[in-house]
Amino acid sequence: MQSRVGSHGTLEEGGKDPIMKLANPARPLQLRLLQFLLLFLGVGIVFSFFSMYMIRYTGGPQNVVAMSEPIILPCVPEPSSLESWVKTPLSLSHKMNDSELFWRASFVPRINTYPFKRVPKIAFMFLTRGPLPMAPLWEKFFNGNEGLYSIYIHSLPLYQPDFPPSSVFFGKQIPSQMVEWGTMSMCDAERRLLANALLDISNEWFVLLSEACIPLYNFSIVYRYISRSRFSFMGVFDEDSPFGRGRYNANMAPEVNITEWRKGSQWFEINRKLAVDIVQDNIYYPKFERFCRPACYVDEHYFPTMLSIQSPQLLANRSLTWVDWSRGGAHPATFGKADITDKFFKRIFDGSQAKTHRLSF
């Protein structure tokens, strides 16, 4: 019987022999992947050799690293070393208000010894209205004693000093505010001077002066006398009169009782501990600000009373500033050109006040 060949022949006989040969796409894909990996490896090796060459001969990568430093910096930079805390401030200009300044100045090391060489200095603080007419004399006083003193000037805010760059007073103005005689603004100015001076950790003694003061001895005598004394020099008198206890306000109790009320000269010399006590005070300040107003002159009572309560053993109960109250009135005598004679200086050095070693006036 003849086999039937037709349109369906392949279907009839295809179930026995036909072999379907299909292409396999997996092998070319694997070859391409392998070629890509080999190319990447080759590029990596070339780049490695190039980098080693740059490091060895050109220093190029260091420049790349320097450029990749983060651009976001911390809001408050941390001190990089002890030096940033103890070095003398390069400028007395700053943007701190009084609260910030007093807080910063009140930092006190709890260890008495210093881990660096410290030469103690005297801070001369000038509380002025404007110019320093005695500046030439003070220039001679300070000459040759660099490193043993610091200078700070608090004047009226609008006053612009014109000291030449060669002057010891150049750049010594601190940020100042208005001062009204007989009010707490006077003590605020003195605290401001103390706080700025305390920022220099080398300042150990603090002398308050006016534009009318002059030195009566040379620098070496003044430095030796102050540095060797175990006392600070501030008048603290219990004056039973209308100008002493008569200015006391009973509302100041219990912080200040009438038996603790003291009076003294505005001009003083104190050590670092007492300077910090004055700057950080928030106990006596509110009482004096509120209840000691003219005719209670706060600059004559605040510091003497507070320090005589807290540290009476550290006070000499006298000032180093020579003043003349013999003419009466609310202010001591001032002296002009006609007063400056040999007889005048003999009166200063040989008089009763000379026995207490007044160093300036």
From TrEMBL:
Topology in the membrane? Answer: Single-pass type II membrane protein
Q: Which domain of life is it from?
A: Eukaryota
What InterPro entries does the database record attribute to this sequence?
BC10-like (IPR044174), Glyco_trans_14 (IPR003406)
Alphabetized, the UniProt keywords read: Glycoprotein, Glycosyltransferase, Membrane, Transferase, Transmembrane, Transmembrane helix
List all membrane-crossing ranges. Answer: 36-55
- State its location(s): Membrane
Instruction: Show which residues constitute the signal peptide.
Output: none
**Which PANTHER family does this one have?**
CORE-2/I-BRANCHING BETA-1,6-N-ACETYLGLUCOSAMINYLTRANSFERASE FAMILY PROTEIN-RELATED (PTHR31042), CORE-2_I-BRANCHING ENZYME (PTHR31042:SF122)
Q: What protein name is recorded for this chain?
A: Glycosyltransferase BC10 isoform X2
Q: To which species is this protein native?
A: Coffea arabica (Arabian coffee)
